[in-house]
Amino acid sequence: MAEGVKDCVCCSNDACRFGDSTVYQIYVKSFKDSNGDGIGDLAGIIEKLDYLAELGIDYLWLTPFFASPLHDNGYDVSDYKAVNPLFGSMDDFDRLVEGASARGMKIMLDMVFNHTSSEHTWFQRALAGDARYQDYYIFREGVRDEPPTNWKSKFGGSAWEYVSALGRWYLHLFDVTQPDLNWDNPAVRAQLADVVRYWRRKGVSGFRFDVVNLISKPRVFIDDLKGDGRSLYTDGPRIHEYLKELVATAGIGSMITVGEMSSTSLADCMRYTDPTRHELSMIFSFHHLKVDYKDGDKWSLMRPDILRFRELIRTWQLGLQSCGGWNALFLGNHDQPRPVSRFGDDKTYWDVSAKMLAIFMHLMRGTPYVYQGEEIGMGNPGFSSIEQYRDVESLNYYRILRHRGKSEQEALAVLAQRSRDNSRTPMQWQARTQAGFTDGTPWIETSRDAARANVANEIVDPNSIWSLYRHLIELRKQMPLIARGSIAFLEVISPKVIAYVRELDSKRLVVLSSFSNAVEAAVPAGEIAGMRLLASSYPTDPETDDGIVVLRPWEGAALIR
């Protein structure tokens, strides 16, 4: 029996306007190197536009390629209107926009507006004593060794840094080189809206806003007596006001806009995406990607809690549906481990589990996001030495884990599952040296699974992971049921199974997914009676036993009537 809202509220308004689209995230530094320096670039993306068009992609989300010292791989911007020479030139960007448009694709940029680089001109002027630019950031008076609050940086250590020359502290929720902007200052908001307008004029068609729900800080800064501070600054007091203002003044209300929401709440996300409020098209929330955090700690390992995962997926799907809001559908990105290594089985059932995860995510209500390499089943690289890592967060936490008493091997075992570098290894185009990513030495080592997971192998195989992704992306374009139908959830027999139903008019789609390497009882056979197979991680229909649908290891199946 299905549980959920049967009528999709959004179908009567514009919340579904991106329901038939698929977004492909490109981590520029690791996608394709065009000049042999070991670093991916804009020209490399241009080389692969035909590949992306063949996959069926609608939007290309580019991670930051702006001027930056790259302490945090570009999420520390020193000039929002300049291209980092490592990635090419503004002429390259213009050619990219033109080439994508010629193939029916649009460009979506990643805007980092919670903070800048400490090398940004604004911050340098603040450090030089310019009061106007000090008000662009969050400075507080104080004395050394007594930070204004006990808040912790998300990268480890205090969230405050003392500037001796000023006798003041500045807030950095992330790395010390990433000072937080003061959004309460109207001049800051005007500057950032101007940045968005600048890129609109350059032909950009959408924006992803990095950790945008952290931009509105509390009116009074106090200690967090129960945590690291996030409960005091997340989804802050003026966040909805600021988002509405940015969307209106930058003129992006009709564009695809997605907010990355850190430690957010469903109630706030219902407001962010309610189409009557004119804030954002959709949101990234991460609660479902914390189900393998032991005691809520990212750096403490456990197997994913599928029961908890199922409940979170259900709650967020139904919650946003109830208000006409919209989900971004994803299991991986540049900050997350590879899905097939995290939620699947990247050894015995590599291709089957990767296909199951694709079916599970792509047929839900929302807009799917494909992170580069996901479509070929790339897994975690399996690094075994700290020297192989480049990510600032990973290097910081390696030191923290060692300080906490972890052995070298124990600390490395944690990074092998949690590091952001797990998803940042070069895109695997071929099985040959450096996976076809570069003719030089890559900035980070290629993954160990390039021989099996690469584009050259999979694009010609009709039964490959890549071919299934292409099929699912095309189905979303062809079938209004997938693009804008309602969603409800079926009661299941096994705790390792998730089952949902999509409905529109007289059409009904049932999706069954097993997160197990054993045979699992799923639902009564009557739930799929008379239905035909639309997509599967196996070549044949699900099996039945004594009136019960049983799923094979890591089976994903979509059936339609």
From TrEMBL:
InterPro entries cross-referenced by the UniProt entry: GH, GH13_cat_dom, Glyco_hydro_b, O16G_dom_2
Xref: CDD domains: AmyAc_SI_OligoGlu_DGase
GO biological process: oligosaccharide catabolic process
Ranges for domain Glycosyl hydrolase family 13 catalytic: 25-424
Enzyme category, top tier: hydrolase
Keyword line: Glycosidase, Hydrolase
Record keyword Hydrolase present: yes
UniProt cross-references to SMART domains, sorted A to Z: Aamy
Gene Ontology terms for molecular function: alpha,alpha-phosphotrehalase activity; alpha-amylase activity
Domain of life according to the entry: Bacteria
Pfam entry (one): Alpha-amylase
The enzyme's E.C. designation: 3.2.1.93
Family, per entry: Belongs to the glycosyl hydrolase 13 family.
Official protein name in the record: Alpha amylase catalytic region
Organism: Coriobacterium glomerans (strain ATCC 49209 / DSM 20642 / JCM 10262 / PW2)
